[in-house]
Amino acid sequence: MSQENLVIWSNGRFMPWGEAKTHPIGQGLHYGLLVFEGIRFYNTDRGPAIFRLQEHLERLFDSANVLRMVQDRRIKCLDASYSSDNLALIIKELIVRNGMSEGYIRPAFFYGGEKIGLDVAKSVIEGVIAVLPWVNPQREFLRVKTSPLRRIDPRSTDVTAKIGGHYVNSFLARLDAAETGFEETILLNGEEFVAEASVENIFALKDGIFYTPRLGTILPGITRATIMVFAGDLGLAVIEDNLEMEFFKRADEVFLCGTAMEILAVGEIDGVRIGKGGRGEITSQFAAMYRNVVEGRIGRYISWLTFANE
Ligand code: PMP
Predict the structure, then answer these.
(1) Computed from CA positions of residues 227, 231, 189, 185, in that sequence, does the dihedral angle turn out positive or negative?
(2) Coil, strand or helix: which one is 173?
């Protein structure tokens, strides 16, 4: 389905894609004062199912709270306000109206309203929710580099919030990778420990134990949390710690994880081959497990799915 034929939700109404409008003078656009989520839905036996919708909406509200868009657990948007349950219903309806069986969901709320300056006390908040077709990357593994840029620092902003302006950091890091011939990039934090990739969290596997950067300078990924549950179920320990890049280079397996790309192996870092190179055994096992879970084939994780038609 081409994008122009999609239905989008904008400022309280469902409408054809091309009718969603906002004024180019606004604080969201000019200063990145926007919060958003990236959510996936998958084709299952019970129709389209949204993966971990509650957790994504919770993070959306946490982000919105940082930008003072929330009152009484509702996000303000023009003259209305929306609870997490309201947004869940809108998202379900949007999937049904678009007749899509799988795809990507992008809700965003931002300061709009033909105003500049950094005072938002009287600003209007606008909102949009789009569903988009999504194709998974077909790559077996990635060649990545250590970014010359540091991940945004918790002493400068709330790094746990998905705020539009934060993504200048991810964008510039990814740009550097692309311009120097790499497929992804890993950013260190202000203490020179590994933080995360441009839009994914990172795991290493060494001698049967999982390692991942501790919370504090990273976005607390929902896929990261999912993997920690899987590991626990399989009896594998996960250590969250301050980890140096050298540790990742000497690991048996390394993978990145996020809603968009799911679980993707890292084959080499800065030209150093990881483990046997290519895609590791446990990484493959976890990637397959993730697919089975998001497509509703594993009963004990079914509560992570919200079925759009039910
Ligand atoms: N880090 C950053 C900076 C991200 O933007 C994302 C994508 N939301 C992630 C990690 C992975 O998070 P999740 O698993 O919740 O998609």
Answers:
(1) negative
(2) helix
- Cα(79) to centroid(ligand 1), Å: 31
How many whole angstroms separate alpha carbon 100 and alpha carbon 102?
6
For the whole prediction, is pTM greater than 0.85?
yes
For residue 271, the Cα-to-chain-centroid distance in whole angstroms is: 27
* Residue 281 vs residues 85, 186, 286: alpha-carbon distances, Å: 39, 22, 9
Tokens of 36: 């958003």
Residue of 52, 152, 199, 257 to mutate, ligand 1, most atoms within 8 A of C-beta: 199
What is the spatial distance between Cα 110 and Cα 128, in angstroms, rounded to a whole number?
A: 9
The beta strand positions in 96-161, using DSSP E, are 103-111, 125-132, 141-150
Structure tokens at 285: 């096992």
Q: Determine the distance separating the centroid of ligand 1 and the alpha carbon of 145, expressed in angstroms.
A: 18
Q: 40 CA to middle of ligand 1, Å? A: 12
Question: Which residue has the least CA distance to atom 9 on ligand 1?
Answer: 200
Task: Using alpha carbons, list the distances in angstroms from residue 226 to 141, 201, 222, 302.
Answer: 20, 12, 6, 13
One digit per residue, the tens of pLDDT, for the chain of length 310 reads 688 899 999 999 999 999 999 999 999 999 999 999 999 999 999 999 999 999 999 999 999 999 999 999 999 999 999 999 999 999 999 999 999 999 999 999 999 989 999 999 999 999 999 999 998 878 899 999 999 999 999 999 999 999 999 999 999 999 999 999 999 999 999 999 999 999 999 999 999 999 999 999 999 999 999 999 999 998 999 999 999 999 999 999 999 999 999 999 999 999 999 999 889 999 999 999 999 999 999 999 999 999 999 9
The residue whose C-alpha atom lies closest to atom 12 belonging to ligand 1 is 221
Pocket (CB within 6 angstroms of ligand 1): 38, 170, 196, 199-201, 219, 221-224, 258-259
